[in-house]
Specification:
There is one protein chain. The chain is mostly helical. The chain contains two helices and no strands. The longest helix is centred in the middle third of the chain and has 75 residues.
Amino acid sequence: MKKVGVALVAGAFLMGLAGCSASLTAEDQNMLRQALSASQEAKASSQQASDAAARAEAAANRAESAASRAENSAQAAANSAAQADAAAQKATKAFEMTLKK
């Protein structure tokens, strides 16, 4: 929002100067052009930074999703190990009972 306000102020300033540009010296006009150019470069840099931030946020979201899937997989593996242990204990008891007979 701040960028829009600055752009509006700069635009109004430039339009005001356009009416009296004949009274501006060549040096003033050159400085005005440089200021406008710097403003446009700043706007482009700001857009690039915003794009980079959006890409970083998307990457963070993907990493969070991958971490969540890894956590779910680890939990599933732990559950499978517990079930395998329980099955092994049952099999051991059954084998011991057959040996006792």
